[in-house]
């Protein structure tokens, strides 16, 4: 495994956002993490990139435990991220944004720069434009291109389809596929489960801080429970294991039924043993 | 009738709008010309500006600039000191985007370093200038190290507290003179007989403010050169990234905490230098010289002028220092007039009088760049529970 999370717990104050998550991403894979709002998807990515501290558990990358490594050093280790809400630098030009992506690198980055412009010809057209004045889709392209500038081994993508027109979503996803084909491992977080599962090799379903399912993406695509998980389950049904007063994030969708959770967790165990 | 009123209203609104966009375009045009100017054209402007600054204390300007108070005195304080302080605060607010409401504390630390060391241990001005700068920088690090994990308004509150703590310590410490303060602070050593524009520029006495003003101009020029070099360095790029999106900066490989601390220390050092010069001119410092209001005023100067852009910051500091003096003619209404002008300028030019292009783009995008909301920056190795302080 290139990247492995072992029983990771993360807290926001007293609230536990990740309740012991274990996932693995092998080299060359596209792995997707799907789930509803507040399930802990973005928190998982932030934990991997070092923006959130671990409460317990381990993050292994390339065989080394990077759980205590500061975020800015993880870039050089090989973790690149296009963050939630794109996170481009609005006052800088497109070109300056891309150069910021290579900030940590001391070596020559002209090859990656050319590649970013080749993958996203739109960025080349807007080279000297302030990034904040671009459309959402262009900003997303910039965020991905910028992350590639660091020449990451694994690219973390946080909801690249958010707020984009369907046409653009298609385009972005096919570029993600192309990036993977060129050798970058990808961990993709998505609410758009349909799209993500079509692209990914494997996927995990996340619900209120727990992995409830893990399987090859094609299998999950036809799974009725996945739809339930993506939508957050049926309203007002049962008192799921996670649906206590300590809901991790306000606005979390109601939890899935307890059977779902139990079954999901079991299949997760199986998945890891296999 | 009503039609008439409406059209005249529209016309005046139109004229107003035209004036506004006209000013904006003029500033933009000047900046474009500056960006494409040859190096020697720029140097001519630099030299003219410095010479102009040196001739500012000219007596003939006094009736226009300041009919009520001594022009040369107010040119040193508040104008010169405010400009230097605003340039220092600009490193913190304009470059790194952190809201510091206790900046006056660093000025006070510089001033008190000068006051105590010169009166108690008889150190001279030229030894104490670097020491005051160092003391302020160190206190910047001491304040910054535990607090810079906070962001936006939370950081502002902590820095506000720091400013008050420094003042209260000075008030309650016998060694620092208590509320009475410290007097008989020596002036810098004089060097007689060097004349420039009718002034002995290296002869430091209590009455003549001009030599101190020239000293201040020297410091300001140094600080401008230093700031400019920082702005276009790797450090400056890191600050821009932190200001625009701190999390994104961190995952680009910018050691955000280290760079925030650095900007705090540099800002503090510049404030400290202003303190040393101020104390040696006034020859007397007391806690009452360093109220919170002054931190707020310097902040207003930076924001009003255009945070992150040196000509803007200088213009802002000049106006904020000079307008209340100019308004002395309207006696008790001067604060009202000054406040009215500040409000008006922020309505008309929210991005500042002369904003930097980058800051303007940030404003238009909506992030504003004064630090995002949000309580804490959790780094690995800090416990999340401790930062939020949930009880």
Polypeptide structure, described:
Chain A has a 6-stranded mixed sheet with strand order 6-7-8-3-9-10, with helices on both faces. In chain A, strands 2-1-4-5 form a 4-stranded antiparallel sheet, covered by helices on one side. In chain A, α3 runs parallel beside α6. Chain A folds into 2 domains: 197 residues, P-loop containing nucleotide triphosphate hydrolases (Rossmann fold), CATH 3.40.50.300; 63 residues, no CATH class. Helix content of chain A is 38%, strand content 23%. The C terminus of chain A is likely disordered. Chain B is mainly alpha-helical. In chain B, a hairpin with a 2-residue loop joins β2 and β3. Chain B has a single domain, classed as ABC transporter involved in vitamin B12 uptake, BtuC (Orthogonal Bundle), CATH 1.10.3470. In chain B, α12 crosses α13. In chain B, the strands form 2 sheets. Chain B has a two-stranded antiparallel ribbon.
Query: How do the strands line up in the largest sheet of chain A?
Result: 6-7-8-3-9-10
In the CATH hierarchy, what is the superfamily of the largest domain in chain A?
A: P-loop containing nucleotide triphosphate hydrolases
The DSSP helix count of chain B reads 16
Distance between the termini of chain B: 66 Å
Arithmetic mean of pLDDT of chain A = 84
How widely separated are the two ends of chain A? 14 Å
Count of extended strands of chain A? 10
Q: Low-confidence runs of chain B (pLDDT<50, min 5 residues)? A: 368-391
Helix-strand category of chain A: alpha/beta
Number of strands of chain B: 4
Radius of gyration of chain B: 22 Å
Number of domains of chain B: 1
Secondary-structure element order of chain A, as H and E?
Answer: EEEHEEHEHHHHEHEHEEHHH
How would you briefly describe this protein structure?
The complex is a heterodimer of chains A (274) and B (391). Helix content of chain A is 38%, strand content 23%. Chain A is α/β, with parallel strands linked by helices.
């Amino acid at each position: 495994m290139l990247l492995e999370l072992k029983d990771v717990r993360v807290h926001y104050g007293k609230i536990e956002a990740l309740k012991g998550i274990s996932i693995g991403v092998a080299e060359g894979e596209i792995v997707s993490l799907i789930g509803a709002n507040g399930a802990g998807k973005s928190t998982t990515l932030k934990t991997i990139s070092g923006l959130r501290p671990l409460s317990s558990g381990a993050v292994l990358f390339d065989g080394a435990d990077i759980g205590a490594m500061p975020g800015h050093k993880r870039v050089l280790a090989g973790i690149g991220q296009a963050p939630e809400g794109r996170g481009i630098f609005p006052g800088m030009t497109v070109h300056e944004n891309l150069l910021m992506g290579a900030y940590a690198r001391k070596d020559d980055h002209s090859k990656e720069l050319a590649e970013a412009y080749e993958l996203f010809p739109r960025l080349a057209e807007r080279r000297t434009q302030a990034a904040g004045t671009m459309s959402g889709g262009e900003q997303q392209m910039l965020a991905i291109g910028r992350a590639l500038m660091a020449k990451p081994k694994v690219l973390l993508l946080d909801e690249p389809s958010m707020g984009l027109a369907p046409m653009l979503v298609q385009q972005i996803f096919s570029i993600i596929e192309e990036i993977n084909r060129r050798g970058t491992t990808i961990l993709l977080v998505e609410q758009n489960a349909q799209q993500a599962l079509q692209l990914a090799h494997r996927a995990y379903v996340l619900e209120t801080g727990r992995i409830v399912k893990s399987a090859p993406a094609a299998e999950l695509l036809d799974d009725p429970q996945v739809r339930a998980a993506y939508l957050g389950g049926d309203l007002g049904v049962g008192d799921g294991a996670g649906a206590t007063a300590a809901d991790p994030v306000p606005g979390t969708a109601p939890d899935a039924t307890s059977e779902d959770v139990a079954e999901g967790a079991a299949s997760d165990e199986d998945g890891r043993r296999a | 009738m009503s039609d008439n009123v409406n059209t005249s209203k529209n016309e005046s609104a139109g004229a107003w709008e035209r004036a506004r966009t006209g000013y904006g375009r003029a500033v933009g045009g000047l900046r474009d010309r500056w960006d494409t100017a040859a190096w020697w054209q720029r140097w001519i402007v630099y030299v003219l500006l410095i010479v102009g600054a040196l001739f500012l204390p000219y007596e003939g300007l006094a009736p226009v600039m300041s009919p009520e108070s001594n022009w040369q005195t107010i040119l040193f304080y508040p104008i010169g000191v405010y400009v230097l302080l605003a340039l220092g605060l600009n490193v913190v607010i304009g470059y790194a985007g952190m809201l510091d409401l206790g900046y006056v504390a660093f000025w006070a630390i510089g001033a008190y370093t000068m006051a105590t060391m010169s009166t108690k241990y008889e150190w001279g001005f030229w030894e104490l200038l670097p020491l005051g700068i160092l003391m302020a920088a160190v206190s910047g690090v001491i304040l910054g190290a535990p607090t810079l994990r906070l962001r936006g308004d939370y950081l502002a509150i902590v820095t506000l507290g720091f400013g008050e703590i420094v003042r209260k310590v000075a008030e309650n410490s016998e060694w620092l003179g208590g509320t009475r303060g410290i007097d008989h602070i020596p002036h810098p050593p004089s060097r007689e007989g060097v004349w420039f524009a009718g002034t002995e520029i290296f002869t430091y006495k209590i009455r003549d403010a001009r030599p101190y003003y020239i000293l201040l101009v020297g410091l300001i020029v140094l600080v401008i050169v230093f700031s400019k070099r920082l702005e276009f360095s790797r450090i400056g790029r890191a600050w821009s990234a932190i200001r625009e999106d701190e999390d994104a900066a961190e995952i680009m490989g910018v050691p955000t905490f280290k760079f925030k601390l650095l900007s705090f220390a540099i800002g503090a050092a510049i404030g400290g230098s202003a303190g040393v010069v101020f104390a040696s001119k006034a020859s007397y410092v007391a806690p009452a010289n360093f109220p919170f209001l002054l931190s707020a005023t310097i902040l207003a100067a930076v924001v009003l002028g255009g945070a992150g852009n040196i000509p803007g910051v200088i213009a802002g500091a000049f106006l904020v220092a000079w307008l209340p003096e100019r308004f002395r003619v309207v006696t008790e209404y001067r604060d009202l007039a000054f406040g009215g002008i500040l409000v008006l300028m922020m309505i008309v030019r929210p991005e500042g009088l002369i904003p930097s292009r980058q800051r303007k783009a940030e404003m238009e995008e909506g992030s504003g760049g004064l630090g995002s909301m949000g309580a804490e920056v959790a780094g690995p190795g800090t416990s999340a529970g401790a930062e939020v302080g949930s009880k």
